[in-house]
Specification:
Length: 189
């Protein structure tokens, strides 16, 4: 295998010179706001990579581009393997229960019933919210919704996991468990 191909496969994510701008304002005062200019990063299997910057610096925008929710204006994004996405604002349906969310996402991920059940049990236990399985999302606290958001992003054991403010709303115990889970995933590669 050529060296360039080996190098490409060594990365699970490669972002090169990504740019993004948005239109702002009305009429003659309308102008372009540059949010990203030349954003680049790489991640290899087993790495934990963090995006650090002040509010409004484009971190969430870059993650949305990597996931494919936003088009980029320039640059390139290459990723391989299965993707897990835990967005800052949970994409949950208020009238569905936690169980129904797990069933829906299991179907979307193409998981068999046994695999989905094992993943659900493991994640409910790890994040300690089994007792809410029959609750509708609209009945949950913000922290429990965020636990569900994280669990759904991990359900299919993705090769690349993107987390945008994943522990906002967590209590201290869940926050610490999140970092334990991160260490476990890191150790598994």
């Amino acid at each position: 295998m050529p060296a360039a191909e080996q190098e490409r496969r060594a990365h699970i994510l490669r972002v090169r010179d990504v740019s993004k701008r948005f239109r702002h304002g009305l009429g003659p005062r309308r102008r372009w706001i540059e949010v990203l200019r030349g954003a680049s990063m790489e991640a290899r299997p087993g790495e934990l990579v963090g995006l650090v910057g002040e509010n409004g610096s484009g971190k969430s925008t870059l993650l949305k581009i990597i996931v494919g929710m936003l088009d980029r204006d320039g640059g390139s994004v290459e990723r391989s393997g299965q993707l897990g996405d835990c967005p800052q604002v949970p994409l949950l349906w208020g009238k569905l229960t936690i169980r129904e969310h797990f069933d829906l996402f299991a179907s979307a991920y193409g998981l068999g019933e046994a695999t989905a059940g094992q993943a659900r049990s493991r994640l409910l236990g790890a994040l300690q919210f089994e007792r809410y399985l029959g609750y509708r999302v609209e009945q949950l606290s913000g922290g429990t919704r965020q636990k569900l958001n994280l669990a759904l992003s991990l359900m299919h054991d993705p090769d690349l996991l993107l987390l945008d403010e994943p522990y906002s709303g967590f209590d201290w115990e869940t926050y610490m468990r999140f970092w334990e889970m991160s260490a476990e995933l890191h150790a598994r590669g």
